[in-house]
Every structure is written in structure tokens, then in C-alpha cells.
């Protein structure tokens, strides 16, 4: 949406990349509430993003 803080979103992705490089373990930026889901749809905004280890993100699937 137009009111999303793109600078903060970019910062979250940068922190994810830094975490991956620092630890040698891949990190993902995850949507807490999935963008498309049966019950609800989330938004691509800074408050709906979190950094997870890749296996936690993939095991989560399309749920929250």
C-alpha cells in the first residue's frame, strides 16, 4: 500500500542479508500474516515482516 514505509522494508531485507552473511545460515524475510490465505490476507508492510531462519520459514508454510 501507498502508506507502507519502503525504507523500513528495505532495512528489514538488509538485516536478513546481514544475518545470513554473519552466521552462514540463510535467513528469510517472512510475512507474519501470509499475503494470500483462506481466512485473511496480509500486506507487504514493515509491521507484517519478520526475519526467520530458512527452515523455520519453510516449515511455517502459508500460515501464521
Helix count from the secondary structure assignment: 2
Largest sheet strand order: 1-2
Provide the β-strand percentage band.
15-25%
The largest sheet is: 2 strands, antiparallel
The CA-CA distance between the termini, in Å, is 21 Å
Helix content: 25-40%
Q: What structural class do helix, strand and pairing data support?
A: alpha+beta
The pLDDT mean sits at 92
Tell me the series of helices and strands, N- to C-terminal. Answer: HEEH
The parts where pLDDT drops under 50 for at least 5 residues are none
Morphology call: flat
Number of strands: 2
Question: How large, in whole angstroms, is the Cα Rg?
Answer: 12 Å
What does this structure look like?
With 64 residues, the protein is an alpha+beta fold. It is built from two helices and two strands. The chain has a two-stranded antiparallel sheet.
Spell out the key features of this protein:
flat; single chain; 2 helices; 64 residues; alpha+beta; two-stranded antiparallel ribbon
Report a brief summary of the structure.
With 64 residues, this protein is of the alpha+beta class. It has two helices and two strands; from the N terminus they run H-E-E-H. It starts with 5 loop residues before the first helix and ends with a helix.
Amino acid at each position: 500500500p501507498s502508506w507502507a514505509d519502503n525504507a523500513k522494508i528495505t532495512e528489514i531485507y538488509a538485516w536478513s542479508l546481514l544475518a545470513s552473511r554473519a552466521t552462514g545460515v540463510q535467513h528469510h524475510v517472512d510475512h507474519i500474516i501470509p499475503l494470500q490465505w483462506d481466512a485473511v490476507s496480509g500486506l507487504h508492510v514493515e509491521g507484517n515482516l519478520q526475519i526467520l531462519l530458512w527452515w523455520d520459514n519453510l516449515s511455517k508454510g502459508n500460515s501464521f
